[in-house]
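Lab notebook, page 48
Experiment: co-folding of the full assembly
Goal: obtain a model of how the components sit together before planning crosslinking
Operator: M.T.
Materials (sequences as entered):
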Amino acid sequence: MSQVRIDPQVHLPMPVVLVGVMVEGKANFMPAGWVCRANYTPPMLAVGIGHGKWTAKGIKEAGAFSVNVPATAAVETVDYCGIVTGRSTDKSAVFPTHAGDLGAPLISDCPLALECRLHDALELPSNFLFIGEIIGAWAEESILKDGAPDPQKLDPLFLTMPDNTYWKLGPALAKAWACGKAVKDRL
Amino acid sequence: MSQVRIDPQVHLPMPVVLVGVMVEGKANFMPAGWVCRANYTPPMLAVGIGHGKWTAKGIKEAGAFSVNVPATAAVETVDYCGIVTGRSTDKSAVFPTHAGDLGAPLISDCPLALECRLHDALELPSNFLFIGEIIGAWAEESILKDGAPDPQKLDPLFLTMPDNTYWKLGPALAKAWACGKAVKDRL
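Observation: model returned without errors.
Model output:
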């Protein structure tokens, strides 16, 4: 082992989602990797978005947003949404959508689409951390197993930085809350 | 396409980290998947942890914590840390550690270890969302490429729920802020 100090501007591997929101009457979508669950009951998630983003303006104004998990086949379209801003480019027709209970644009051809009610907007120095309660969830029927998304059928995208690479989910390795029992028994 | 409504208690695929903290004088470690970057400058991350967790008590008291990215080879030890609680089991000797500038226990044999100063603790209904500023980063020299972790050498773990499965990173698919240009040119 030889750990060395590196620049603290470090990124973790990220799942890739598309954040959908109505802005000035039009649906807009941006890819985001700064996203994770934040609360168990009720289910909430957190998403970090730069102060200047069109999506940030939309979430604050609409009070609702969607978090859509695209499949890897959509990688080019996902990336396109990160190259152009809704401020100058109308992305409302990029995906077919349906409105959630709160009016957030849910992407109909994503395997998983969640609608969130804005619970809190934490203003950090350069980003907002939006906390949303998941009030509705839609999934493509074919990816479900026992009523929940099957990870391999979901076929999610991951992003790493600074190499700016999209990745597929790799092979399954072990079971959680299970494989560690061998260690427990050894100690 | 046929999306159907499902239970909103939905999980995204998650990167797996070990959160390290000093609690009552002893280093403790818990695996966490509710973790993402939260702010760009200065670098911050967010981690969601249940109210009752020993780690939550430690972070609030110490004001500092570590976020360590284990390699897939450590999967059983990582899982072990999620099976036993620091409240009743001393996990301080599970990993070799070195103290960060703020005294947080950094795992010496993880390929990547970050020390965070607690910036904010958002109290949600069942979890705290801890926001930490990354004030130091250490990486195993052999995983670096141009000074930053190379994702394949980092060899991170992912977790999905409710199937409770650990996964490896899959094959690289495309370049971000690049592959979408083909879509832009088509439109």
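Interpretation: Residues 54-62 of chain A form the longest helix (9 residues).
Next step: discuss with group before ordering constructs.
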